[in-house]
Amino acid sequence: MEASPTAILKLLLPKTPFILKTALAHTLSLSPTASKWDLRTELTINIMRSMLVPGSTPSTISKNQRLTTKDPGVKGKMWISKVSIPVDSDDDHVRQLVLDTVDSMSTTPEQKATVYEKPASQPLEAEWTGYRASATSTSPEPPNLSEQEKYNNLVAETTSKVTTLYFHGGAMYLLDPSTYRNLTSRIAKDTGGRVFSVRYRLAPQHPFPAALLDALVAYIGLLHPPPGSPHAPIPASEIVFAGDSAGGMLCAALLQLLLQIHRTHTPSDPSSPSLPTVKWHNKDVPLPLPAGLALTSPWLDLTRSLPSLTSLAHYDYLPSPSQTLTHRWPACPAWPSPPPRADLYCDGGLLLHPLASPLMALDWTNAPPVFFSVGQEMLRDEDAVLARRLVQQGSVIRWVEFEGMPHVFAVILEGSAAADRHHEVFAAFCSDVVVAAAAAANKTEGQGLKSEARLVLAKSLKDKDMDLKDITDLTDEQVDGLCNDGMKRIVEVFEARRNGDEDAVQRAML
User: Fold this and answer.
1) Residue 502 confidence class, pLDDT cut points 50, 70, 90
2) Nearest alpha carbon to residue 97 among 254, 302, 274
3) Phi and psi dihedrals of 416, rounded to 5?
4) How does DSSP classify residue 206?
5) Buried/exposed code over 444-468 (b: 16+ C-beta within 10 A; e: otherwise)
6) Is the pLDDT of residue 159 over 80?
7) Are 194 and 129 in contact (CB under 8 A)?
8) What is the C-alpha separation between 61 and 332, in angstroms, rounded?
9) Suppose 130 and one of 79, 288, 310, 470 were both cysteines; which one would form an S-S bond, judging by CB atoms 3.0 to 4.6 Å apart?
10) Catalytic sites, residue numbers
11) Residue 123 domain-assigned?
12) Confidence grade of residue 497 (pLDDT, cut at 50, 70, 90)
């Protein structure tokens, strides 16, 4: 997100003593991260950490949303074309498919007993992003162009068939695709393709599975454009799901949703395999799997229960579980919800539903290739567990771990050598996976993708090979136990507060 120099100065001026102390400790190699971080990283992460620790007078959810969802406008080397995907008011098949799948995957007593808010279907707002080579970093958006003309100009500058379906981060309740334009235009430039960014519904006003429904509508809208759409149908073999943090969680949940739909599909002719279909704008349309997923520091466990939340906190800026347990959101129009619930994103009984916390999904058979870019961050364990699980079930995985780097470092430390390296390997995966998927779809020979893992060493950025089998020693049984304990703590605190125990605390989201 962009901010004026005056706003930045007002923010940082009171922190001058803290900044000087941090810089001195780093220069004298007295900080625990001095051997891994340069001075810029040390200052950035420590300042963010000090700002994100829940304070005695926290902002409301409503205020945070207002501050983080403002459209910064369009300028620079990018094409932006805003679009809307209409929902057919005569049928509700896509919505019902999502709700039926959520219900069919509710297997525990808590999940089966939970009565959750069922989202309505609604038109989806989104925007196309492309690279505008002839512009400068300060060029304004060309005037007097329709959204269709902007889209046509965007497509004219593409050099590949890569279409990235991007879901932004922000813990499911913050941010907006418009605040990600610098990132999505970078992806468009690096891949030579185009990016479709989705304005999915935010919690707590729209709890699970509203965002998941929006994600599926976005994907179907790319595959099968409704009347009036600027784009032609895009083959699944050219589409890569991508996202950071909570957006990465939505990518994984969308893939698991599609895999479950495929698992439960019964072909009309058993001798002739077919794709599952759904009625969309009065047509039965197929639901293929995408070419792949490109995940940046994906958040996969709503309960935040695995060991790296503590063991790697010194490399990260996110509040720790112990800090968020003492946090109380001030009342506002957005929160607490009516009726109250234990979590901003979903009801307490659904915290470990495999479509809410994809870490709890055990079956990933037939998943397309998946790319992980992670730091040595607080979410590392959950990402490593999923990566290993995918490999064990036959999927192709590219795991790139950056030594000593924090959560979503490529956005936080934009312009750094590590961030540039992330963008390089991210774009290479998107390009490679689309080429491989196209070859497979056309039954032509192409170089197959292979699983690989590497550690990018701090400062030198040299690669060190890793074994995917060894990226975590956590077993599925241990993960299940830790996450169930985490869910119980969250629900117990919520019930204590609801029953009038003022000493109990309300859990805040990531």
Assistant:
1) low
2) 254
3) -75, 165
4) S
5) eeeeebebebbbbebeeeeeeeeeb
6) yes
7) yes
8) 7
9) 79
10) 245
11) yes
12) confident
Coil, strand or helix at 102: helix
Which residues touch 387 (CB under 8 Å, ≥6 apart)?
Answer: 370, 372, 397, 399, 453, 468, 471
> According to the model, what pLDDT value does residue 506 have?
44
Task: Determine contact, residues 378/308, Cβ cutoff 8 Å.
Answer: yes
Q: Which one-letter amino acid corresponds to residue 377?
A: E
DSSP β-bridge partners for residue 125: 84
Side-chain half-sphere of 160: how many Cα atoms within 13 Å?
26
Q: In which residue are the tokens 């340069």 written?
A: 38
Q: Alpha-carbon distance 247 to 227, whole Å?
A: 28
Give the domain extent around 281.
75-498
CA-CA distance, 266 to 444, in Å (whole number)? 28
**Amino acid residing at 258:** L
Query: Quick check: is 184 in a domain?
Result: yes
Separation CA 51–CA 69 (nearest Å): 19
Burial of 29 (0-12, 13-18, 19+ CB in 10 A): exposed
Most confident of 16-20, 75-79, 506-510: 75-79
Structure tokens at 208: 């699970």
Q: Quote the number of domains for the chain.
A: 1
Instruction: For 281-388, list the strands marked E by DSSP.
Output: 283-286, 292-296, 370-375
Flag whether pLDDT at 505 surpasses 50.
no
Amino acid (one-letter) located at 289: L
Give the closest residue to 92 by CA, choosing from 220, 369, 337, 281: 281
Cβ(297)–Cβ(378) below 8 Å: no
Query: Which run of H or of E encompasses 125?
Result: strand 124-131
pTM over 0.70: yes
Peptide bond into 140 cis (omega under 30): no
Amino acid making up residue 432? D
Cα Rg of the chain, angstroms: 22
Find the range with the poorest average confidence among 46-60, 109-123, 154-168, 229-243: 46-60
Average pLDDT rounded to a whole number, residues 299-315: 96
The amino acid that residue 376 corresponds to is: Q
Q: How confident is the model at residue 134 (pLDDT cuts 50, 70, 90)?
A: very high
Question: Two tokens at 29?
Answer: 């190699």
Q: Which sign, positive or negative, has the C-alpha torsion 237, 239, 242, 248? A: negative
Mapped onto helix, strand or coil, the DSSP state of residue 12 is helix
User: Does residue 41 lie in a domain region?
Assistant: no
Q: How far apart are CA 164 and CA 238, in angstroms?
A: 8
151 pLDDT more than 60: yes
SS3 category, 131: strand
Residue 14, pLDDT > 90, answer: no
- Phi/psi at 369 (5° precision): -60, 145
Q: Decide: 490 and 348 in contact? Cβ < 8 Å.
A: yes
Q: What is the mean pLDDT of residues 486-500?
A: 86
Pairing state between β 370-375 and 397-402: parallel
Confidence of residue 507 (pLDDT cuts 50, 70, 90): very low
Average pLDDT, the chain: 91
CATH number at residue 164: 3.40.50.1820
